DNA sequence: TTAATACCCTATCGATTTGATAGACTATGC
DNA sequence: GCATAGTCTATCAAATCGATAGGGTATTAA
């Protein structure tokens, strides 16, 4: 299940991308427009800023804004930042690989085999979608 | 992330499918072979039995066994029984649909649009995999 | 018929995660 | 220097997860 953090983050990014200009937008405006708890959104936007997707400006007239063009923001990156691994199981994760302690052999593991396919199919989707695609 | 319940359930099903005959297999044997907590596995096998994938036999010589041929057991069914919805968000779920309370319009929701594609890609994988495919 | 076997069911428990809130701090612009 | 708006830390209730304990019940072999 998708976490609310990811859901809200996606909505916030989409909202920013939908605006014509790239002027800073206040947290409060985003929260209100997308029906999100403002304080919770604060921490999410902070994450997005620290990972380089958003810029911020303090003080009057401040807020958050997209750094890159929406068509250059891949969903693979967004999902990994917000949700973490795309794979459903660590042993098939590209960026967050971990060996399963209970599984003696990945090559013959039925779960591994199935989850590998699921990961690839999800990756394909995320790689073919940019932020610009989501707001069309 | 895939729950251990699903992971263990898949492993147990695979183990049963890998055996030549369809004689009842004791919980203890499955648990030992797959490195699973026996008590936890009990509840999982119970779920699988109640949903019609497994049969059980009590008393001496009892255990669990597959009811259908492995090639007739679709991963869509297995995943829905063990993990629940295949969709990452209720508003794109076929079997567990729920409206998002915060989202005013699904048609224009960017999250909805993305998650619909992810669901379809996962469904395609699960529909093309039977239990027989996993143990090849 | 009886006793062993093995599935069935309920309850509980600690750990972790999640979503949300509060409050103080800091930088900016007028 | 004061209002504005992002930044950071701490906390918290609720839910979920994985696991465990312990007794109940049906079946079978002897």
Automatic annotation (TrEMBL), chains A, B:
Family matches, as Gene3D superfamilies: Winged helix-like DNA-binding domain superfamily/Winged helix DNA-binding domain
Superkingdom, natural source: Bacteria
Keyword terms, alphabetized: DNA-binding
Family matches, as InterPro entries: TR_Rrf2-type_CS, Tscrpt_reg_Rrf2, WH-like_DNA-bd_sf, WH_DNA-bd_sf
Keyword Cell inner membrane listed: no
UniProt GO molecular function: DNA binding; DNA-binding transcription factor activity
Pfam family, one: Rrf2
Organism: Maribacter luteus
Keyword Zinc belongs to the record: no
Protein's name according to its UniProt entry: Rrf2 family transcriptional regulator
Gene Ontology terms: cellular component: cytosol
Transmembrane region(s): none
PANTHER family (UniProt xref): HTH-TYPE TRANSCRIPTIONAL REGULATOR ISCR, WINGED HELIX-TURN-HELIX TRANSCRIPTIONAL REGULATOR, RRF2 FAMILY
């Amino acid at each position: 299940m998708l976490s609310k953090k990811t859901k809200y983050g996606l909505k916030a990014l989409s909202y920013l991308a939908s605006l014509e200009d790239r002027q800073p937008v206040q947290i409060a405006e985003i929260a209100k427009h997308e029906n999100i708890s403002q304080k919770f959104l604060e921490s999410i936007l902070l994450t997005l800023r620290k990972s380089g997707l958003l810029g911020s400006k303090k003080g009057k007239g401040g807020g958050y804004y997209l750094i890159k063009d929406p068509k250059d923001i891949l969903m693979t990156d967004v999902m990994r930042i917000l949700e973490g691994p795309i794979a459903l199981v660590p042993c098939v994760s590209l960026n967050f690989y971990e060996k399963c302690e209970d599984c003696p052999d990945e090559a013959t593991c039925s779960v591994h085999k199935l989850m590998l396919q699921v990961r690839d199919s999800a990756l394909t989707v995320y790689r073919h979608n940019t932020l610009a695609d989501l707001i069309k």
